[in-house]
UniProtKB/TrEMBL annotation:
Domain of life assignment: Bacteria
UniProt KW keywords: Membrane, Transmembrane, Transmembrane helix
Name this polypeptide is given: Uncharacterized protein
Transmembrane segments: 20-39, 59-77, 112-133
Presence of the UniProt keyword Membrane in the record: yes
Keyword match Transmembrane helix: yes
Length: 138
């Protein structure tokens, strides 16, 4: 991150569109929810409840996902269009995994977490948000 970017946070400027602010808040809430879930999984793993390789890989995947989402949120705060596009691809991949899971006959209900993530992603592509991401000053 350059020195110029550190001096000013575009999302906090008055001209930053409301949909982007709401989307960032939703992403942060989803991230916190997933972080609490990861912490509970790690506590269970420490107690020996998750012994299989698959379970340990699932925990590592969730940790990676959280790091990726934190990076994308931070980049979106700094008006990075690539982060918005990557988030859209991530949300689309999640949707495809849910569809695949349902087709496979698994009883999986993504609930409010995925819905919040999807709504936040849609907010990033509203006209005001689109214009804001495309007119970076730096």
């Amino acid at each position: 991150m350059s020195v110029k970017e550190k001096g000013s946070i575009p999302l906090l400027h008055p001209e930053a569109p409301q949909p982007v602010k709401i989307a960032t808040l939703l992403f942060a809430l989803v991230w916190l929810r997933q972080m609490f879930f990861l912490v509970s999984l790690l506590e269970d793993a420490r107690e020996g409840l998750y012994a299989s390789q698959v379970q340990r890989e699932a925990i590592a995947t969730l940790a990676f996902w959280l790091v990726l989402n934190a990076t994308l949120m931070l980049a979106m705060v700094y008006q990075k269009n690539w982060a918005r596009n990557t988030q859209a691809l991530s949300t689309l991949a999640g949707l495809l995994l849910i569809v695949w899971d349902v087709i496979a006959g698994n009883d999986f209900n993504p609930g409010i977490v995925y819905l919040s993530n999807a709504v936040a992603t849609v907010l990033l592509f509203l006209p005001s948000a689109d214009a804001w991401f495309k007119k970076r000053q730096y």
